[in-house]
Amino acid sequence: MPKVLLTGGSGFIAAHIVDILLQHGFDTVVTVRSDEKGQKILESHPNLPKEKLSYVIVKDVAEDGAFDEAVKSNPPFDYVLHTASPFHFNVQDPVKDFLDPAIKGTTGILKAIKAYAPTVKRVVVTSSFASIVNSDQHPPVYSEEHWNPVTWEQALDHSKVYRASKTFAEKAAWDFVEKEKPNFDIATINPPLVFGPIVNYLNSLDAINTSNKRFRDFVQGNLKDETPSTDTFLWVDVRDVALAHVKAIEVAEAGGKRFFVTNGFFSNNDIADAIRESHPKLESKLPPKNAPSNPPSYAYGYDNTRSREVLGISYLPLKKTVADTVESLLAVGA
């Protein structure tokens, strides 16, 4: 069977990618930062032969040569899915702590693959809507043709450094392929807010991804007095994002393309209403019903045609995402 290296194997999106890779028959190796994280992944998939699922340790993805050993394999890898991103608790210097690691983490694995893994045919990079959006001047409709116009100088603003880091890292990947002419092509997956069930063996209520924190807060009654404003209006289910990564290595036409993977618009009140419907016992913890169901107006539209037509993604509805996410949070004590 084809063999895949998945970086950042203990991440929210990556944990779901593992499930789909195994379902689709791929031999899968994940990178993790510690034996403890690797063992948790293996323990959650018992009875698999070692060649179907294993792990290698990469402690710091931003270090020079971090992936040099990880990409070497016998039998060799056919594909790489790069979801890992540098991990920092305290960003004091935007360049040193955020921008450089994000860019080096991406270019580092591409360099390692070119040098040590000549059998790799395609690399799929987890990017973001952050590298598409232009918050200063939204186009009428966002699609893969749009790029965040952020400059390096603007990126030094702490409020813009995350979006800038995703933008520069993705651009660095495309530039690498154009200039280095490696043995592989690339595709990028660009989701907005990613909702969906947490993976119990990896997550605690304190460590869930940022997008899902609103679900935890609803379930715990932290938002029952007032529905918070919806600042970002586009979302996607993590399982659709995971499937998009796998389809991007299975579908030949996906090479050389970006994929804006989004289901569309939501509001925080839509989430509260969906929780009310799927878990009526939580009614007392939810904000009042009379909040407006949608933001007054959307500043832009979206076009997810490429993800549907090339990758065949059929997006999960918000009500299912909400019900499954809440259920996963309750299972870990929310």
TrEMBL record:
Keywords: Oxidoreductase. Pfam families: Epimerase (PF01370). The keyword Transcription does not apply. Residues 280-300 are annotated as: Disordered. One of its GO terms (molecular function) is oxidoreductase activity, acting on the CH-OH group of donors, NAD or NADP as acceptor. Transmembrane segments: none annotated. Residues 4-256 form the NAD-dependent epimerase/dehydratase domain. SUPFAM superfamilies: NAD(P)-binding Rossmann-fold domains. Belongs to the NAD(P)-dependent epimerase/dehydratase family. Dihydroflavonol-4-reductase subfamily. This is NAD-dependent epimerase/dehydratase domain-containing protein. It comes from Aspergillus cristatus (Chinese Fuzhuan brick tea-fermentation fungus).
